[in-house]
Amino acid sequence: MTGANAERKPNSDIVIVGGGSAGTLLAARLSEEPDSRVLLIEAGEEAADPDIWNPAAWPALQGRSYDWDYRTEPQAGTAGRVHHWARGRLIGGSSCLHAMGYMRGHPSDFQAWVDTTGDRRWSWDELLSVFQAIENHPLGGDGIHGKGGPLPIHLPADEVSPLARAFIEAGAALGLPRLEGHNSGEMIGVTPNSLNIRDGRRVTTADAWLTKAVRGRKNLTILTGSRVRRLNLEGNQVRSLEVVGRQGSVEVFADQIVLCAGALESPALLMRSGIGPHDVLDAAGVGCLIDMPEIGRNLQDHLLGAGNLYAAREPVPPSRLQHSESMAYMRADNFTAAGQPEIVVGCGIAPIVSECFQAPAAGTAYTLLFGITHPTSRGSVRISGPELGDRLLIDPAYLQTGRDRELFRQALEAARTIGHRDELAGWRERELLPGTLNNAAKMDNFIARSVITHHHPCGTCRMGKDSDAVVDANLRLKALDNLYVVDASIMPNLTAGPIHAAVLAIAETFARWHRETLQS
Ligand SMILES: Cc1cc2nc3c(=O)[nH]c(=O)nc-3n(C[C@H](O)[C@H](O)[C@H](O)COP(=O)(O)OP(=O)(O)OC[C@H]3O[C@@H](n4cnc5c(N)ncnc54)[C@H](O)[C@@H]3O)c2cc1C
């Protein structure tokens, strides 16, 4: 626990629930106003494990004490498999566990947000200054990328693996444009991935935003090891929060409450508080106070096929970055056509396979990962009971639509097309997976057994102007006056690539609106 006044019952102007990617940014931005007392409540502790800052160690962090380590329901679309979902439970949240890839998304992704909200603040053009404010990018100042923002973006050059270089050459020979990162608005092409790494070390959102100076602000209190169990309502307001921590249960009062607990725990907290779908709350034994059928629904996630595996002709040197060094975004029918990406092929500098397959020894093989950018399958998250210990029922409904399965087959074809090109001949001894697949059913079967999460759950408190949407374009929960949701859960649809940059843009957009509107 940090912060001088955290021992006693705090009374704040603003309470932020969850000190993850969105919550840490918001804590810094909302406490810029000295008269505004901000309390950040985080279930986990401060980040301390030195491995967090070692980029290559990121897959090994999963399952440690600061990972929520969720399990999905068995997935019919993936051969009945249960998928492990990592989420950070510490200050910095999932930015302490993630793979550090930084991709804003494609302009069309955000047009869909404008269409659903009727609000142009969510357009690519309007978000440009928001992304720029976040970033410290080597190309910053060119009118597209940001300069001097809190979050460093690294464009790898010399450290890129020779295998990833050959992969990029193969994509370019296929006709894909060579890009300088994925963040210019043009995503179709090949490039090393842009990463949140500085001087060889991961930069978490806590490193970037909760600096010593920010933590020293008198009006900011950070309460760790404390989990918000439920919100207590009075009329159209949240009156107080019930917080369970080391000192037992305390009631916390605030004028405004901002949920930043992430795509799983924000809807779960609402449901435990009696706000959500009537049938789900009934089944969980929670009295329904406000029936909002869409809370917990619209769950989306990216999958990656793991994968199109090759035995290497010569030893593959370990990645000097974070194993997934380059992603090629493409159209599905005509791989090199321009526009919004539909599929992706990534170069894994390691033999990466799902638990259904045996991974060869490190250094002897490599994987081309493959996936689709805009799945149409929609799942849900539900609570199973009223208590913090009651399991979340997570059903992403993976690969439930024919369109998703068809695009996944095309993504596998794209991986094999790149994987068999001459530019990779120096690395390729032979293809190990999937082997011969001579019909769609066999391809579907391989895909179902090979896919793993790309770790991008979102959409469970979606924003929109329709009556079913959970939050409005200002991210206010529609049924209440003083409750906001600001995290991955409000995304109406996935962006084409990894979503962290979009989550930060959501938080920065809210911070600007908050300053202009609520603080004035
Ligand atoms: C393994 C992994 C790899 C990933 N790789 C990438 C990548 O390379 N690039 C990319 O763009 N994205 C990546 N992502 C996704 C990205 O990290 C997340 O989408 C993003 O961090 C989500 O931010 P958030 O603020 O919504 O939630 P989080 O960052 O998860 O924050 C939620 C916080 O709320 C806290 N909390 C939850 N419930 C409560 C409660 N009741 N009371 C108090 N606190 C609570 C949690 O402990 C957590 O700290 C990855 C994610 C993971 C897990």
UniProtKB/TrEMBL annotation:
Keywords: FAD, Flavoprotein
Domain Glucose-methanol-choline oxidoreductase N-terminal, first and last residues per copy: 88-111, 262-276
SUPFAM superfamilies tied to this protein: FAD-linked reductases, C-terminal domain (SSF54373), FAD/NAD(P)-binding domain (SSF51905)
Domain of life of the source: Bacteria
Keyword Membrane included in the entry's annotation: no
Cofactor: FAD
The keyword Ribosomal protein appears for this protein: no
Similarity comment: Belongs to the GMC oxidoreductase family.
InterPro entries registered for this protein in UniProt: FAD/NAD-bd_sf, GMC_OxRdtase, GMC_OxRdtase_N, GMC_OxRtase_C
Residues the entry annotates as binding FAD: 228
GO molecular function: flavin adenine dinucleotide binding; oxidoreductase activity, acting on CH-OH group of donors
Record protein name field: Pyridoxine 4-oxidase
